[in-house]
Amino acid sequence: MTELINSVNKDFQKIIDGFHTKEKPSRWLHDVLSQEMDKAGCTFAAGPMPIFIKPYFIDSSRMPYVRHTTETIVRILDKITETYYTSDEMKPLFYMTEVEQEAVGIKTGFKGRVKITRNDAFMTDDYLKYCEFNADSPGGPMYSDQQAEIIEQSPAFKKLAEAYDLGRDVIMPQVLKTLLDTYAEFKGTKGAKPKIVLSGGKGGTFPEFLAIVAWLKKKGFEAAFCDSQEWKWDGKDLVSPDGFKPDVIYRRGWIGDWTHVWDKVQPVVKALKAGRVCMVNPLSSILASNKSLLAVLQIPKVFKMFTPDEQKVIKETLPWTWVVTEGKADYNGKKVDIYDFMAKNREKLVLKPIDQYGGKDVAVGRACTEQEWSGWIESTRKARFVVQEYIPIPQEALPVIDEASGKIVFKPKNINVNFYAYGGVYTGGVVRSSDSAIINVHKGGGMTPIMYVRGKKK
Question: 359, 389, 419: which is the final residue of a domain?
Answer without folding.
Answer: 389
